[in-house]
Write a structure and sequence with these properties.
Enzyme class: lyase
Strand order of the largest sheet: 3-1-2-4-5
Family: Belongs to the PTPS family. QueD subfamily.
Protein name: 6-carboxy-5,6,7,8-tetrahydropterin synthase
Shape: elongated
GO biological process, one term: tRNA queuosine(34) biosynthetic process
Oligomer: single chain
Bound molecules: ligand LPXRUNBV, zinc ion
Helix content: 10-25%
Number of helices: 3
CATH topology: Tetrahydropterin Synthase, Chain A
Strand content: 25-35%
Structural class: alpha+beta
CATH class: Alpha Beta
Radius of gyration: 17 Å
Distance between the termini: 33 Å
Cofactor: Zn(2+)
Length: about 130
Amino acid sequence: MTALTGEHRIGKRFRFEAAHYLPGLPDGHQCARLHGHSYEVEFVLTADRLSGPGFVTDFGDLAPVKMMIDSALDHRVLNEALPELVPTSENLAAYLAGWFVEHVEPGLPGRLTAVRVSETASSWAQFEVAR
Ligand SMILES: Nc1nc2c(c(=O)[nH]1)N=C([C@H](O)[C@H](O)COP(=O)(O)OP(=O)(O)OP(=O)(O)O)CN2
Ligand SMILES: [Zn+2]
């Protein structure tokens, strides 16, 4: 059998409920008002070679992400929980990627390639990590 070269990629999704408002929008814009979303965030990891039984990274090794989301973001007003940023999907995706690379990725066999944030069923923003 021919062995193909390529990359392995995995994703893990997390959900949380949170409120936000977006300053700097035109008068009357609906998103300038405090409102809530059922957020879905997906972390994508990549590896050239598998480790252990055949993992990019054990999905269980992403448990710290759930702990952080549950303790810091779930059922919070994101403008207060993350005062250093305007909580658009784009900014949240970049923030979560930075947090992951600093706090979770060291020691994992896989590397983070992207974080995708969805506020609604029909929209998403993705931050792709440049290496
Ligand atoms: N590029 C971005 N655009 C918008 C963002 C964002 O984070 N990035 N965020 C918002 C608001 O948070 C808004 O709540 C979500 O916008 P929208 O998808 O328009 O929400 P609706 O519920 O109105 O979606 P419909 O599918 O049209 O019902 C705005 N824009
Ligand atoms: Zn919103």
